[in-house]
Amino acid sequence: MNEPLKLKKAALQDLIDLLRREEFKVLGPVVREGSVAFHEVREVSDLPIGMRDAQEAGRYRLTPGVDGEIFGVVNGAGSLKPFFFAPHEILLEVRREHRGFKVRDATPAAPRLALIGVRACDLAALAIQDRIFLHDKFRDAHYEARRKDVFFVAVNCTRSAPTCFCVSMKTGPEAASGFDLAMTEMEDGFVVRTGSAAGERVVSKLQLPTAASEDVAKARARIDECASGMQRQMDTSDLPHLLYDEVDSPRWNDVAARCLSCTNCTMVCPTCFCHSVMDVQELDGNMSRRVRQWDSCFSLEHAHIHGINFRPRIHDRYRQWLTHKLASWIDQFGTSGCVGCGRCITWCPVGIDLTEEVAAIRAQRGKH
Amino acid sequence: MTPYTIHPARITARRTETEGIYTFTMRLLDPSVRAAYRFQAGQFNMLYAFGIGEVAISIVSDPSEPEILEHTVRVAGRVTGVMADWKVGDVVGVRGPYGNGWPVDAARGRDVVIVTGGLGCAPVVGLINYIIRRRDEYGELHILHGVRTPNDLLYREKFDEWRRVPRTRVYLTTDQPDKSWHYRIGVVTELFDELNVAPSAIVMMCGPEVMMRFAAHALLQKGIGDDSIHLSMERRMECAVGLCGHCQYREHFVCKDGPVFTYRTVRRLFGVSGI
Amino acid sequence: MKPRIAVFKFASCDGCQLQFLNAEDELLTLASLVEFAYFTEARSRALDGPYDIAFVEGSITTPDDARRIIEVRERTRYLVTIGACATAGGIQALRNWSEVEQYKRVVYPSPEFISTLSTSTPISEHVKVDFELWGCPIDKHQLIDVVRSLLSRAKPALPGHSVCMECKRRGNVCVVVARGEPCLGPVTRTGCGALCPAYDRGCYGCFGPADDANMEAFTRLMASQGITGMDAVRRLRSINGYVRPWRETADAIAKNQNQND
């Protein structure tokens, strides 16, 4: 068990076909609107072969990469989040009846998903969302319905984007858990490890040969190289105290002057879970739907109650986001809310970089 | 079943407390939901107005009769505005109970200080009634209430009624008195000069954060421990089950970790704006 | 008795009131719930007030408009402005930065017959407005929502956050980050469903400024994309150009530009 196996590049199609035969809807990174996101994949050629991504704070471009490389694009704006915690969904249908109403649970009939090319940081993010929606005081039925029986094919990262800092957050570049199969891409194929009984079943059906020890060593070296070459870092020492103590840091004003409060960072974040719950009536007044949709702590409405707004300034809202993500999240869920995927850095239109903000807050600690 | 599901309940009584404040008595319609429903003093329900939305409203009736649910609603926003029109016989929605409630067990046998301010703090009305119904189980009861103007003093008769309960003192104050005012004049913290309680007393408060901060400070001076001072916090609540994120108060979710917190728990955060 | 609805037009293109007629699926239901007492685009019979809800389209550009809106207000319980013209002054508020008399002489053969104000102003500068629907044109769903809320005796719930949130919920890729497109989304109020970014274009700001828009940061973002001076002014001084904070930001950039020239 768990002996590294070898999947030839040509056999990736066999994996996709097998999963499709087993009635999974297979999703993988697909080029859309100048980035990649998880969409349905039927052929290997649907994947961004020979492409890479150029990322920096506030900028993303797809670029020509290495011929034949299938998983050269590290990540795109879309994480796994929308597949389990839907951006917009109906929770309940409430129908007016004679002198009352009837409530119907709208728990979704979710398709069985197989996700190919999932990165370690995104699996770590999913584990964090699981803690919130499945393992906290209240279990979320909608999340649960989508989350069960998903097949994950992870890809260990052999290159990182300049915005990545998973090593600091201890989530990558190698997938540690939460996958059925984990693959490391080489020139001629993949070194594959299994992570579950379902994964074992799949590789036995594919009759994969054992990987040569040179291949295993090379795969290991590539992952290690990716880790040691990671450009961005975040010093997580003394969190949450650093941010709790620095509630009055002058840096909050500094970042508030730059922040558009547009909510993009929270939307692309694979762990941000804030959502609004609203009741939307049909015009005839006989039917109302309880809807939930992604919300953001950057919206002015987020902390508003009649007559009081608890976080009226962008200063308050940026501080809330960063403090929650890196500090209070630990108290709430026993883990940081950040996995180091770097999306909030890349997809911030003005390029605000939380690693820089934390470093600045740390540098000014106690000096103001 | 989703934690967001709503249970229909029929309104069996409606009482006007004062202009814009109404108390609704309601009964869950589904017999099995009703039979299983239990709550503790100070917990809240999400009340639903068909098609409009929900608001968190504390339960003011007595937990020993969980089939009767009373909620006092102050008309303030979009949803409570619709609730003002609720009539006896209407079917509304209930989801709950949520939150941790008041520490009525820890308070047993001790002197109890209840501090409120601002506009009619319904959560403490339920608490006061709870203690009065079990008067022998508790020590001295001190009720302190500060209002900005005499017009803000809701439930004037209730305070007069509580004044007549054995071993109970009521302290009222305003900083902008008029001719009708025959209580004390000054801000709520000045009431503490008159308050004579043992350091073993337990305190429960509800009201504007600034008032609670000054009150907590005055009570600490009297030797009451910061873990014996309990405050009810207010934040936006949409889900009430710790998932939607709105009610966060730094590391706390007010809906599931609160709404009642000890002063020890929140003292670092108290008075910091924008949290 | 069914609530009486009126739809009034001031200086505008009719596109917003057309949203009533575009609400094809809901139109019959709507007609069964309310009485259109005054809606000249849809029916010739016009009834006098009072009206329960008056939807007002268009801005105030003539002395007659300025009188008429006061009459409308007097006969109306809830006055709801619909669209950028009524809510912000509209594209025609561009006149607020120029000489109307000059235009009159250029455009009309007999300018002496034209009675017009020197400005185009939103309804809220003339009478009390109860609710505002932004957009050019307004969003059909928001319109239906306002009617339904008022029928349910509730205040309409109209969000004020940025287009970005809706854009990302929809799964769009940010056109600023991935393509370097100019986009007003981060400072624009939601409501359109992030329509333009869904078609790979930047946002034009049809729904006016979002709550608490950080215009200084946004001005720097535009500058980083090479949009400065009168180019930046023109982007802000558009359909909703007369409304703060866009007006003030554009004015400040223009003033700066003039000083530099």
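qc> Chain A has a mean pLDDT of 96.
qc> done
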